[in-house]
Amino acid sequence: MTTAVLVDDHPVFRKGLAVLLEELDVTVVAEAPDGEAGVEAALRHRPDVVLMDIQMPGTDGITATRRILEAWADARVLMLTMVADDEAVFAAIQAGALGYLLKGAGSAEIGRALAAVAAGEAVYGPHVARRLRAFFNAGAGVAAKPFPELSDGERQVLRLVAAGLGNQVIAQQLHLSEKTVRNRVSSIFAKLDVASRAEAIVKARQGGLT
């Protein structure tokens, strides 16, 4: 029987998904309400598949996926999310996710994706697959933007942080409030899994942002 860990911040959705998985002969060994708890649950239980949302409080699903794969190279993660934009899809792939489905997927589609990911195969829902084909047909590159898990605004702030600027100066340059800059810096720290500006600067330079 396939085992799974569910990582999603909506308890009602998790409950419904757990019922669906039981019908598919998938045993849910743990549930987590955010990325941090998801990393802990995945590494503790070592399930066949980790079903991961992207947008969650604290540690997001892409960062959590990266951390799981860094600690457990054989982990198999299936993203199950409402987020369908190109940056999120490519960030999930770069983080190591084997599958990407939207939450509107039917039970049969979820079952097929689970089986494929559990077997080590890559699988994407029809909507995501169309976006991937369109992207590659256009001749674009996956690594066009460094740190794809960051929003454009967060990337702007990180570039200025890496240049050694303080929050007040960054706010003036970007015509933002200092509070907005502080919030973006906090979000950057969480997504890049760093604890200080110095660590953020090192990551920015290693990632070619400066």
UniProtKB/TrEMBL annotation:
Residues 143-208 form the HTH luxR-type domain. SUPFAM superfamilies: C-terminal effector domain of the bipartite response regulators, CheY-like. Keywords: DNA-binding, Phosphoprotein. It comes from the Bacteria. The keyword Oxidoreductase does not apply. Residues 3-118 form the Response regulatory domain. The modification 4-aspartylphosphate is found at D53. It holds the Pfam family GerE. One of its GO terms (molecular function) is DNA binding. PANTHER family: TWO-COMPONENT RESPONSE REGULATOR. This is DNA-binding NarL/FixJ family response regulator.
